[in-house]
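Hello forum,

I keep getting stuck at the same step: I have a sequence, I want structure tokens, and every attempt I make locally crashes halfway through. Rather than fight my setup again tonight, could one of you with a working pipeline run this one for me? It's a single chain of 254 residues.
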Amino acid sequence: MPARDSGLDTGSLCAIVQARMGSERLPGKTLLALADKPVLAHVIERLRVCKNLDCLAVATSVRPADDAIVSLCNELSVQCVRGSENDVLERFVEAGSAIGAETIVRVTGDNPLIDPAIVDALADAMRRDPKLEYCFASNAPLGTSCEAVRLGVLRRVQALCDRPDQREHVTLFIRENPQLFNVMEIRSSLGTPGLRLTLDTEEDFEMLSAVFAALYHPGELLAVRDVIRYLQEHESVMRLNRDVRQRRPGNPVV
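Reply #2:
Ran it on my machine without issues. Output:
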């Protein structure tokens, strides 16, 4: 990614990471340490190797508990924009406007194995087709993917959605009403979509801690394919969070 991620970032296609300390299942998960580094720092580290992003920012809430996220962003020279805790759609619109983004790659701060190749593929698709409004990736482990959306589309969605869960889950209205938008699905070559690599519970943290302890080396990008291979070869580690059920829209998010 171009070195434009300190101070006030501007650019037309930007990754925005949503993150907050509040979590019913695993409070403070965003700053839990994996291989002696906060989860959010891993997310930012992986986004910084992306080639198709103009800038990078974190969107957190105005709650005092999230001051810790702002402090970490300052340490990492990443802009942090604060907004509503529960109206995450509004938070993204305000963050996108603040950093001058025309297109947003939405990433969540509880995915320390976000795949840069998927990020770049979505960003490239949005650059190549100005008429494309929303793009998402499938056929990848949970926690490695993301989505891309035009800021103008999010503003339209603000006026259209009428349920709290549609404002909490930023793109839920788009996914529920795909006929209203120009949507593209990109299938990842990673496969194993049933594999859980996100962080939402103690079991997830235990599994990810084992993975990072075994594979992570500072200064080197941990490849998702290496993680998949490791888990396939170490079923005892994969079993640690195999029974965790993913929460669906209508439940709190980061």
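Confidence is low (pLDDT under 50) at residues 2-10, 250-254. If your local run keeps crashing, start a new thread with the error log.
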